Amino acid sequence: MIIAISITSFLIHALITAFLFGRLLEVRLGHFGVTVLLTAGMTLMFLAGIRLFDFDSELCFILLKLLCIPAAAFTLHKGSIGRKTVFTLIGAVICLCAEAGGCLAGDVLFRENADISVFSARVMAPDFYLALSLIEMLIIDRADILREKLRNLSLLVIGFDIIHLVFLVLFFFTEKVDHAELNCLVQSGFQMLLFSIFFVQYQTVLRMRRLTEKEKEYETVKKEIENNRRYYALADLQYKDISKLRHDIQNHFSAVRELLKKREENEDEAKLIMKSISKRLDALGTLEYCSNRKLNSLLTVKLNDRSFKDVGVSIDLNDIEKSPLADNDLCGIISEMMDSAAESCIQCKEGTCEFRLFCGCDDGGFVIRAESSFTQADELPSYHVTRLICETERGTLTVLTADGRLTATVKLII
């Protein structure tokens, strides 16, 4: 019976260790492979120790659990030696604390029966080990857990683990019967199934979250490809317009030179020709606003939309390379600002519509400012995407209306 309880406990210990190091290090064989190898290794050494060398079973049991941690970190996972060493030391401390907690609980419950105290300690120690391991993971791997939105699930697992520990304490306290060893084995089996369900559910949620992120990345890439396609289509069209304009300008200049030979009679006609050339040059616009290719594509596509057809546009992008934002976030903010500006210009009925966009370093931060014509409305634009990005990047968003203009300003710490 003691061997069966020990092997079950080894399996649970290996399961938790594989899960913990699987979060903190890169696995070589997968969680299942690590669990099987660790369990097999601890079981074989345990049987050899108590059968061949007559080791004390309890001392051998705890030493093998401690040995399991560096074995998992240094042989079955990838990573730097320093990182593995740190996690090994932390894991060993957690393992010793868990064993101490299990022994203390068993001693308090079964002071009159040392054997049952040992068995119950082996059943309760994995609950302490799981709770402490999850707390370690929440502290060390906090950034990735928050990004993957797994904090609440981790806390839920800790809560159920504590409830299971309370259940075990109540069970052992009330079921002091002769077949307590069998009860310990049954409870260890239930504990193994419970922890397996926890980890399977955790990995399922993690895969779902990562799949959702991949779908979002796919949508972003798809939009970027579409923007680039339209960008290069517009670039090709502009190239053709420029080639045609160069040919026409040569003809116009020849006509102007002939007209200017008799300046007094033909001055007005020459001025009309020059004005026509100027208008055609202004109509061409530009496709290069800054050094960021994604932003160039976005601005080109947006400004060639019908929403900005009759809008006076001024673009002044500086220090784009110093922006603390990822390209997708930067494009997301500017895209939303331009959409809001286009909407405000459509609603504006007074005078000519104008839109100005500015980016640059100012007063120790990176500033993105959009100004557009604005008629007083019931509600200001929500800037939902911009607000979310500002919360993530610890930036600020300010929206003001004054003198018939809508101004949205984002400031980020460099």
What does this entry look like structurally?
This protein has 414 residues and is α+β, with helices and mostly antiparallel strands. It folds into two domains: 2-219, no CATH class; 291-414, 2-Layer Sandwich (Heat Shock Protein 90), CATH 3.30.565. 71% of the residues lie in helices and 11% in strands. The protein has twelve helices and seven strands. It has helices spanning 2-24, 31-51, 57-75, 81-109, 114-140, 142-147, 151-174, 180-260, 263-284, 293-303, 327-347, 384-393; strands at residues 26-27, 77-78, 311-317, 353-362, 365-373, 396-402, 405-413. A five-stranded mixed beta sheet has the order 3-4-5-7-6, with helices on one face. The protein starts with a helix and ends with a strand.
Helix percentage: over 70%
Q: Report the average pLDDT across residues.
A: 79
| Number of structurally distinct domains | 2
What portion of the residues fall into strands of 2 or more residues? 5-15%
Poorly predicted runs are none
What is the tally of beta strands? 7
CA-CA gap between termini? 63 Å
Radius of gyration: 35 Å
Shape: elongated
Largest sheet: 5 strands, mixed
Structural category is alpha+beta
Widest sheet: strand ordering: 3-4-5-7-6
Helix and strand element order: HEHHEHHHHHHHEHEEHEE
Helical region count?
A: 12
Offer a quick outline of the entry.
This protein has 12 helices and 7 strands. It has helices at residues 2-24, 31-51, 57-75, 81-109, 114-140, 142-147, 151-174, 180-260, 263-284, 293-303, 327-347, 384-393; strands spanning 26-27, 77-78, 311-317, 353-362, 365-373, 396-402, 405-413.
